[in-house]
From TrEMBL:
Gene Ontology MF terms: uroporphyrinogen-III synthase activity
The organism's place on the tree of life at top rank: Bacteria
Entry protein name: Uroporphyrinogen-III synthase
Pfam families, per the entry: HEM4 (PF02602)
Residue ranges of every copy of the Tetrapyrrole biosynthesis uroporphyrinogen III synthase domain listed in the record: 41-221
InterPro entries on file: 4pyrrol_syn_uPrphyn_synt_sf, 4pyrrol_synth_uPrphyn_synth
GO biological process, one term: tetrapyrrole biosynthetic process
């Protein structure tokens, strides 16, 4: 049976994990000021929040712990992607308006354009993004402010940590795939699972890749166990 390894930025309790990158939260409070959004009057300048990753939510929550006035974010409707975001938003008490089942930024944009019409959106995003969500919203003439809430920094790993041949590797983000290849190259015997369509598109054409039926780690693990028997 093939070995299953999650390629991620944080350790999972559910499955063996190889951390190929680190998440660094960035100062959102200062970025709000630079974007001419007064932290004490957030609701007067923002009509909805946009998240495509739970890291963006976690970065905001860290800032909310430091600055009490940012608690107003809990009252602003949220548009987000995936069950992972939904769980974090619910546990933190955010006001969820819409959760997309799509794992593709462009599809998400099409879903929320009608909801976003005439509203001012704040997109808390990664330093580096693959999808064209921001471009699609701007082309639809949706007022959009973007704040870089976190950065995903690749790690330099010893070659001894390279997964065994024929492993099934689960990738949680395009950045983690690129960081893995940067460290270890690619063994043609690997099977790769992408948590969503955006991650799948990051794979090289030669990669034997599959996309999870749902954008959750649980669904990825279930698919990995099925493929591990091949």
């Amino acid at each position: 049976m093939r070995e299953i390894v999650l390629i991620n930025s944080t350790i999972s309790k559910e499955i063996p994990t190889l951390c190929v990158s680190e998440i660094h939260y960035l100062p959102i409070y200062d970025a709000l000021l630079e974007s001419n959004i007064p932290p004490h009057a957030i609701k007067e300048h923002i009509d909805a929040l946009v998240f495509t990753s739970k890291h963006g939510i976690s970065a905001l929550m860290c800032e909310m712990e430091r600055y009490s006035e940012l608690g107003a974010f809990l009252e602003i409707p949220v548009l987000a992607i995936g069950a992972g975001c939904e769980r974090v938003l619910e546990s933190a008490g955010f006001c969820i308006e819409f959760i997309s089942s799509s794992s593709h930024g462009e599809s998400f944009a099409r879903e929320i354009i009608a909801r976003a019409c005439g509203r001012r959106l704040l997109y808390l995003r990664a330093q580096s993004i693959v999808s064209n969500l921001d471009l699609a919203l701007r082309q639809a003439q949706i007022p959009l402010t973007q704040i870089i809430a976190y950065a995903n920094t690749p790690k330099s790993l010893p070659y001894s940590q390279k997964p065994a041949p024929r492993s099934v590797l689960i990738f949680s983000a395009p950045s983690n795939y690129h960081a893995f290849v940067q460290n270890f190259g690619w063994d043609s015997s690997y099977i790769a699972i992408a948590i969503g369509q955006t991650t799948l598109r990051a794979f090289a054409p030669s990669v034997q890749g599959y996309v999870s039926p749902k954008q959750t780690l649980e669904a990825c693990i279930k698919l990995a166990k099925e493929l591990a028997r091949v």
